[in-house]
Amino acid sequence: MPVPALMEELWGTQPPASALTTLQTYILQVRRGITVALGASHNGPAKDVLRTCYGGYLLDVDPTHTDVYAFERLAEEGKRACERGELDLASARFRQALDLWRGDALVDVHAGMRIGMEVARLEESRLGVLEARMETDLRLGRHAGLLPELSALTARHPMHENLWAQFMIALHRSGRTSQALEAFIKLRKTLVNELGVEPSARLQHLQHAILRADPGIDRNGPEVPAAASVALA
């Protein structure tokens, strides 16, 4: 990472006159923290991990030792298991990936432009894995157990249509069809009031399928028909 990029991340476009000296102090503090974290088991100095390079610094670590790598590896394993139809394994891998999280991404780090972009990427990736796990568990018939989590997620993401669709299907399959239809009405009201738009055609098809008591919505697995599979895509 070049020194100017680090300065911009820390102070924006107006770094103080002492920026370079302060940055060097921060690097020293980080190296001290690395030394403590590695302990006596590490043979080399912290400078071998956080290296000084021409014009900047390099964090020289094996990517397989990072939690981000582990999260992305487990998520990919879950995706491939799902594609093979190994739904129990897929659900387990998605859960293992999500269990690595402890709160929001980089929650205790000052976020400049670059870190802010990485935080957004990580949070979007996390939400995608969460959706995939919900989809997999719906296909495994675990709809009742998903209701508390989906209720909280739709409250946190009030305009996220796919989560609402999964919530509607889980409610319907749990014998709570009226609440599934109420969920659609709540989502529609939010979208109209906040954005001036109607729910997507996929959500409207799902609502109509529930109103028609389409038997396909009650099935688990990939054979769910198109009208009901909008939450499972």
Automatic annotation (TrEMBL):
DNA-binding region: 1-61
Name this protein carries in UniProt: AfsR/SARP family transcriptional regulator
Pfam families: BTAD (PF03704)
Domain of life of the organism encoding this protein: Bacteria
Classification via InterPro entries: AfsR-DnrI-RedD_regulator, BTAD, OmpR/PhoB-type_DNA-bd, TPR-like_helical_dom_sf, WH-like_DNA-bd_sf
SMART domains: BTAD
UniProt entry keywords in alphabetical sequence: DNA-binding, Transcription, Transcription regulation, Two-component regulatory system
UniProt family annotation: Belongs to the AfsR/DnrI/RedD regulatory family.
Residue ranges constituting the OmpR/PhoB-type domain according to the UniProt record: 1-61
